[in-house]
Predict the structure.
Amino acid sequence: MEYISRTDHDGIARVVIRRGKVNAFNDNLIDEMSRTFGELAIDPSVRAITLTGTGKFFSFGFDIPQFLGYSKEQFTRYLTNFTRLYREIFIHPKPVVAMLNGHTIAGACMIATSCDYRVMVSGKARISLNEINFGSSVFAGAVEMLKLLVGHRNAEAVLYSGAMYTAEEAHRMGLVDQVVSEADLESVVDHIARDYAAREPDAFRSIKGLLRRAVAERIEKTERDSIEEFVKIWYSEKTWARLQGKTIHG
């Protein structure tokens, strides 16, 4: 694969996002992630998964410059695949631990919230659902997963403000589960993954389904409408002007 790598060791699969400096999401990357998680779901040798990025970025979210050249139909197709991916991770039969090695912004934050556990590096890294800052909305699934983690009032604060949170701030509100130094990040995540891997797989899958299936079904009913509304706002005159003025991914 071009943008996703996978390595397996002692029943734990490490999935790494590798796309340029900021690991921005585009069609091919999302397709590769979906294919990888599909393979992991049916691989009997894998008992736990860790997901991370390269360098100082978990991911900076959507590749906005690339999407500026998309038609509404092309962009809607991408968003449909992207939201399907985070739902696949959200109800994945194997435990998924997000190793947030750096900035985790917008769409990347959505992917992180779909995982079972999030460990974030301390320091300069920020995590955010900052869509409102450039005039964009979010998706029904992103809102449901966020509320599940941080509660309704904190979800309002995250989404209405578009704030860029430090790892410590995110931990206090429940957006991440643990904050560690860069030096300890890999070993801590490996320990957590091993702990998950020690659980009886069928029991874990069943309990995770009981915890998340009702939320996933609720998302399924409203996601399509939220994508349509997202596209309508994205291509509105004011938001389009803001997006064209951006020089970084988001």
Remarks:
- DSSP finds ten helices and nine strands in the chain.
- The radius of gyration is 17 Å.
